[in-house]
Amino acid sequence: MDLQKFGQAIVHVDLASGQTQMRPAPADWVKKYIGARGLGVRYVLEAGPEVEALSPANRLCFMNGPLTGSETSMSGRWACVTKSPLTGTVTDSHQGGWTGARLRWAGLDGLVFEGRSDHPVYAFVEDGQVFLRDASDLWGKGIHETVALFEERYGEKDLSVCAIGPAGEKMVRFAAWVNEDDRAFGRGGTGAVGGSKNLKAIVIRAPRAKSRVGDDGGWKAARRTALDAIRDEKNITSPRKGGLSVYGTNVLMNPVSNIGALGTRNSQVTSFGDKAEKISGEYVKEHILVDDPTCHACPVACKKEVEIKDGPYAGLRMESVEYEPAWALGANCDNDDIGSIAKLIDQCNDLGMDPIELGNALSMYMEATERGFAKGKGLAWGDTAAMVALTDAIAQRDGDGDLLAEGPTLAAAQMGHEEIAMAVKGQALPAYDPRGLKGMGLGYATSNRGACHLRAYVAAAELGVVPIEADPLEWKGKGGLVKAFQDIHAFSDSMDLCKFSAFAEGPEEYAAQYASAMGEAFSADDVTAAGERIYNLERYYNNLAGFREGADTLPARFIDEPSTLAGSKGHVSELGSMLDEYYAARGWEDGVVPEAKLRALGIL
Amino acid sequence: MRVSFFASLREIVGARDFELSLPADATVRDLAEELVRRWPELREQLFTDEGALSRRAAIYLDGRNVRWLPDADATRLSSVERVAVIPPAAGG
Fold it and tell me: Confidence band (pLDDT; 50, 70, 90) for A214?
């Protein structure tokens, strides 16, 4: 069977009544907002920005993009979109693997959940239909066991499982959905929304479909052009040659520490010094790497499966020691033990939690302990055994874990010291210190889902990976650059291609692939226009939800406390100046989208 | 001075880092040429076909890409403590 044209098969599920209904997405929504991230935000907006994130009225959308499940390179992505219980903003998170592709092969483009079931359920998807089935026997189980039980029940062949763990059930504010054991909708607490609805899992059974999409001739040519770019040996995506393919995302650990942009000890300093080596991609490859798994239709294979050979976690085999969690649970917590980092990441995969938020919650608590105002038992820097134990407690909301389950921002506020939460709009910072990579700092501040490296990812320019001149320590010019990157990524997240495609592709390649898939004319200018529209739609939602003047900011640490280490020594984030540039480029008034702008973009 | 290599460059050089002595007035270009003399495979990483410093691998002096220094490849190394040579790196 050929894949259906995107947008025709969205299933709405009322968890209160158990009723399901397939409806095509409104045609003008697909045209304006493309799919995945953009289309999901439009569905969430329809439910109203005032809804409580953990109430039945919130919508929980799982959305494919127009190319998901095709043979288009790096198209194994799908999005989870909802109102975040962590930030109160609209949020979207993306995962790789095979589950989004399998949803497409099952004949569907998206799932929109509303309401709350009165008992635990899972959604079983097959042949274009969705069935709600009892999950009472699965409630309380970890994700690894849940996946194994479903494979036992339905057979491993042609099956994908995306589930929440105990953290989602307990509504930990940074709970995640995880598919196939280890690919997560990590950020924003989407797993807690699943828990609030008593939705344990989405289980999809479908054989691989013939993955031609849209116009056959045009699509093949567009796909080939993009694939050639991905394979080009000059690009970091080059299979088995480029740094991203050989070492995974953790190829960044040493370089970012070297330039003084690696937040360490809750971002009190900007480099992990010689210890960075022990948690780096190079170290992983030399000592514990056992396999290079990949996602659907991806030649890059950036995932890194490891096996711990000694110490208390000897025998643990897991994927993947990525840069972000290795930083959050490593340098940021003053932990240079790779075995414990693998263990903590695997706990996140099993319990269903965002390791970036977890690492920041732990590092915040460590700083609170050091400064003498921690509530509870406290936590010492680099105490790995205590970190592992506290991670379990957070997922179960036991003891001190209940405080940290609220996320670092709310937990720090409860201790009366919000200033030690390294977060924007309630979401914790990722692994690039805004003093050493100034564009990344502006990207964090203006991200619509709270601090996020992936909304803009101008690090690609500041680290010299794409051919754009951008001195990481220069603030001038970053306003327009961040806007441009945000817009292009809003489009790629909506199509939904892997973010890393942008290391090899650009608007021309995206436009050609989208045009051939949808059978309509679409130019590179249309790519950036759609991306800008989607970014403004999210901002409109957030403005209505109460995020207005002054919401785009950074923790004072990055503005007031200069870096003391080489690479970025003496530097702070000139956020105010960068925001002036940025708002001028956006046409916003201090973070608020004017009505005229919304009308010009076709949002109103 | 200590020169460190990251990622795939280590496989060319066969080491994480090594000590290098250069004349007191040596520049970044002198350093790059010395590295290529020792490991010819580094030429395509460090230099363009026209002989300018390449973007494929960047030389960092005390954490700062020489690309952003006022004298770029003419910068003298006399006060530098730490040199790193880094191939393109990015990810999530």
Answer: low
For domain B2-86, give its CATH number from 3.40.190.10, 3.90.320.10, 3.10.20.30, 3.20.20.70.
3.10.20.30
The CATH number that applies at residue A340 is 1.10.569.10
**Tokens matching residue A401:** 């874990």
pLDDT at A211: 66
| Residue A351 confidence (pLDDT) | 98
Q: In this structure, are A48 and A187 located in the same domain?
A: yes
Q: In Å, how far is A494's CA from the nearest CA of chain B?
A: 18
Question: Do residues A316 and A188 both lie within one domain?
Answer: no
3-state secondary structure A174-216: CECEEECCCEEECCCCHHHHHHHCCEEEEEEECCCCECCCCCH
For A574-595, the pLDDT digits (tens) are 999 999 999 999 999 999 999 9
> How does the average pLDDT of chain A come out, rounded?
96
| Distance of residue B7 Cα from the nearest chain A Cα, in angstroms | 6
Nearest alpha-carbon partner for A117 in A134, A100, A92, A140? A134
Residue A379: exposure state from Cβ atoms within 10 A (0-12, 13-18, ≥19): buried
Angstroms from B90 CA to nearest CA on chain A: 6
Query: Which tens digits make up the pLDDT trace of A378-405?
Result: 999 999 999 999 999 999 999 999 999 9
Q: Are residues A163 and A199 in the same domain?
A: yes
pLDDT of amino acid A411: 98
Q: Inter-chain contact B84–A243, Cβ cutoff 8 Å?
A: no
* Cα–Cα distance, A583 to A574 (Å, whole number): 15
- Tell whether A218 is covered by a domain: no
Domain range for A492 is 438-553+574-600
The residues in A 217-256 lying below 8 A from B, measured between CB atoms, are 234, 236, 241-244, 246-252, 254-255
Q: With a CB-CB cutoff of 8 Å, which residues 560-579 of chain A face chain B?
A: 565-568
pLDDT in tens, A466-477: 999 999 999 999
Tokens of A89: 């903003």
Give the residue on B whose Cα is nearest the Cα of A271: B63
Contacts of residue B67 in chain A, CB cutoff 8 Å?
A: 464, 471
Query: Percent of chain A at pLDDT above 90?
Result: 96
Q: Do A465 and B7 touch (CB under 8 A)?
A: no
| Nearest one of A155, A176, A172 to A350, comparing CA atoms | A176
For residue A228, being part of any structural domain is answered with no
Q: What's the one-letter identity of residue A556?
A: A
pLDDT at residue A216 in the model? 67
CA distance B89 to chain A (A): 6
The widest CA-to-CA distance across chain B, in whole angstroms, is 41
Q: Which of A215-219, A242-246, A459-463, A534-538 has the lowest mean pLDDT?
A: A215-219
B63 chain-A contacts, CB cut-off 8 A = 258-260, 271, 565-568
